[in-house]
Amino acid sequence: MLSSCLRSLASKGLFRHLVFFVVALMLGSLAAPAVRAAGDQPPILPLDQVKPGMRGVAYTIFAGDNIEPFDIEVIGIMPNLMGPKQSIILIQLHGDKAEHTGVVAGMSGSPVYVDGKLMGALSLKFGVFVKEPLAGVTPIEDILSIPTGDSSNPKALSVRSTADNHVEPAATIGGAASSASISELPHYPVPTQWARAAGASGDAYLEPIAAPLVFSGFAPATVRQYAGEWAAYGMVASAGGTAPPASDDAKVVPGDMVSMVLVQGDISMSAACTVTAVTDDRVYACGHPLFGLGSSNMPLARGRTLTTLASDFNSTKIVNAGGVIGTLTEDRLTAVMGRIGPAPQMIPVDLTVVTPAGEKHFHSEMFSNPKLTPLLMGLIAFNGLTQNTAYGEGSTMKLSGDIDISGHSPVSLEDMYAPTDQFVPDGTFVASSVQTTFTRIFSNPYEMPKIDKVSLRVEAIPDRRVASILNAWSEVSEAQPGDPVTIKVLLRPYRGTPMIRDVAITIPPQAARGSTLRVQVSDADSLNRIPNLVAAQGRLGGLDQLISLLNRERRNNQLYVTLLKPTPTLLVEDKELPDAPLSQINVLDQKRLPGNSALLRESTAGEWSVRMDEIISGSTSVFIKIK
């Protein structure tokens, strides 16, 4: 029966193809870590045992959830490429898919095996416009050396294998690898001899393999506006979505994709890379830093690959973020590490956008981090405005809201933002203002703030509401203490007819006869400048005082009239002490002003304001003699 079947296959010319198929399966099983008994656990391959010419196999996902192998060949070791004792293994990728796509964004972290031993993770690629299938591999010893945050015996740790899902012994885990601080994407020049050996030009360089930064629910204008902010971290902005949570989300193995969640909710944003090793409840991925944050507290989710797009510029995976499976706890020079388990707490953000067409509400949650949260907040605010179907350029934006900080008073937000002739979206000014406020809160030198909730409301008014101060004058040039005085202010609205606003003030009863008072008519920025300078120099006494200062800042839709007298004012922390005695000033001058103080030449005798429907700009002065 068997012989007749074989003769039939041979007659149809299929027998030879069957033999080739069987041989290919046998060769593939020799290259990859084969399914083994529970006690047969392949070890890692230390760097000192890696030799040029070695052949092995790497694992990654090109589409779907199918982890695919591709062949690799070791070209050599580049010692100290990334720093002292931070060597990189240079390899060449083989196989139809790998040679077609080159090194793909999202492939970082793909595990590399030689003779069934885990050698390291794909981490570096040649610079842009180079699709050569050449890559740098971070040695597995450096990956496993990052801090774990526990006291377990490192020699007892085990690494799960890609092919068999069994457990492999890991090498001794040493000291912590230094964290990376990425202000711009690092370039690592490749020595000429190595570049030539790899078939590249003599001025070749390696850079970290990019991580796809997946935006879901974001308007194209938002992605364009903020793409450059993430490029310095080696991120490639791409469209994507979210996959529904699945029961096997947490069952990740080397070669699978994971996503690091920055924003989730009505909109989502996550960065993706490949798993290198799984040790107990720890997941090692990327083979290089994500943001270089060091210790972190970012949600870790399963990544689901849709497909891989090949490009001469930058091939990339299209990845959806699946269910959250734990927390990314370490973001270090040689890898990121997360733990399977509970997800960390994020900051809830509620945004209401009001237009003539009605209201729209958006709810999301964002990752809490001093460096990234201000940027995420600006991005969320900008997107909430521009993705509204009623949004249009040429609108004045009116912002209000609160930032709730645990253990402190909330920071109140209130301001107006007018469109300009600059070639930038109008929503940029609102987003930038909110982002700046968050930066001031998070960059305070006093304590780490815990943001409980953010509530924002933005009203779009279809008009350019701005007015400039042209001039101001008083009905009288002289006045007595206690007299009422009317200050007239000439304003020019944008493309409108000049108008006059009256502001009634009162000369203080204690004003010194014979003195001259200065009446400053101004916008909010002129009055906010000096106290903010004190805060910028770290002269406040704590976060409460910074919040107090933020809440006392003048609003730019008000016209301010300030009566100033020629006596000094001391600014001490968040307090203004007018009419400082000369004796006290002389004492402070001899001892030098304390670090949390500043001295102004004038003191405020009174301040009045008029709420306007326009944003006020400009400043002028009027002088009144006290008789």
Topology:
Layout: H1 2-11, H2 15-31, E1 55-61, E2 67-78, E3 88-94, H3 96-101, E4 111-114, E5 117-126, E6 134-139, H4 140-143, E7 158-160, E8 167-169, E9 188-189, H5 192-197, E10 205-208, E11 211-216, H6 220-231, E12 235-239, E13 257-265, E14 268-279, E15 282-285, E16 294-309, E17 316-331, E18 336-340, E19 347-355, E20 358-366, H7 373-386, E21 396-405, E22 411-417, H8 427-442, E23 451-461, E24 466-474, E25 478-479, E26 484-493, E27 499-506, E28 516-522, H9 524-536, H10 543-552, E29 558-565, E30 569-572, E31 575-577, H11 582-591, E32 597-600, E33 603-611, E34 615-617, E35 619-626
Parallel strand pairs: 11-12, 19-23, 24-34, 25-35
Antiparallel strand pairs: 1-2, 1-4, 2-3, 3-6, 4-5, 5-6, 5-10, 7-8, 9-10, 11-14, 13-14, 13-16, 13-20, 14-15, 15-18, 16-17, 17-18, 19-20, 21-22, 21-23, 24-26, 26-27, 28-29, 28-35, 29-33, 30-31, 30-32
Helix pairs in contact: 6-7, 7-8
What's this, in brief?
By secondary structure, the chain is an alpha+beta fold.
